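Re: export button greyed out
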Amino acid sequence: MDLLFKNKKITGILTVLPSREVHFEEEMGNYNFSTAKSLKLKMAMGYNKHRIVDEGVCVSDLCCHGLEHLFQQGKLKREDIDALILVTQSPDYFMPPTSNVIQGKMGLKQDMICMDINQGCAGFVLGLIQAFMLLEQPTVRKVVLLNADVLSRKVSKRDRNSNPLIGDGASITIVERTEENSTIWGTIKMDGSRADALMIPAGGFRQPSTSETAEMHEDINGNFRSLDNLVMKGDEVFNFVQVEVPPMIDELLERASVEKNRVDYYMFHQPNRFMLQKLADKLEIPREKMPNNIVENFGNSSGATIPTNITFNIGEKLEKQEMQLCLSGFGVGLTWAALLLRMGKLDFCQTINF
Amino acid sequence: MENFLEQIAELLEVDVVNEADELKSFEAWDSLTILSIIAMANENYGVVLNAAEINGANTIAGLWSLIESKKA
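Workaround output, generated via the alternate export path:
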């Protein structure tokens, strides 16, 4: 679906990462594979270290830490927040919305909108789309978009398919209206018929968690996980990305009449290095223009990977200058989406630890 | 097919492969190798394979016929 937004801009991004860093080698013994095979996987996929929350840490903890930092630094005022959107698949509770919990903890005003959105890898793009739509209301001047997940708590430590790449984290993105004549081009597609490619089978109302859903089983590849754990069909997700994402990006650029080499950076979701290199090759984009180093440094934190990618790799540049960026998220749903926009001279674009 | 045999030997970490060789008999056969084959088939032959199809191909020759059948 083609989308178009006028006179909206991102004015700041803060990434909040748990300070606990776990190295691939520390967890290698959990997997049912030889050391040689595990090291080969590490090399090919670009695994090294990832950031994992301590037991009991929830997304609201990461978000409140980041918001408090911005209040204290004078980069954001409590009373200026007209809408708080939280995109997460690991909320504190099923009810109430975690965004309301955060509003309460932070002492924000009542005259505002709080909204939780259940999205994952495409959650930054979907959250921005929602923020842009809210800003159509004259009373909504500033939207705070939170992308946060602590999915390491749902991944089996004995699952070589998912555990080495998972990361926890949160990001806070400020979205506002602007008088500048700006156009943001967007696109989003969904395919719920492939919803089982990435899922947590048990723990919802369809299949509540019981002692049986917590039992660990071995799959055909020698990974152990339970129905309470996140499960990913790696081959299907790989094929989905290689087949669906390149034509989507080509069409978006064509619609905006922007040539590939005019885009300064392709800041994409970070599933693993291997997938991003193949994606860059398929799009005929130099690999340097599509950073792929987030999984090896921090892990894949679902909807927070694009902001993490931005603050870590081009944060300093974006505080000073403006750039043409193409953002794209793809995964759970299945959902794939992209935005083409100019971004820069941000009030802040940084990473902090929790 | 000669090119294919060379490419597949590289992915399986051996010097040469024969058409009759069983995929599962290779030391390097695992989910990562399967993903590498998916990527190679997509890149070099423009076809989309999944893990179940590759496992079902059984032999090197079977894998080649699978790719050929998808090219049509």
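Chain B has four helices and no strands. The button fix ships in the next patch.
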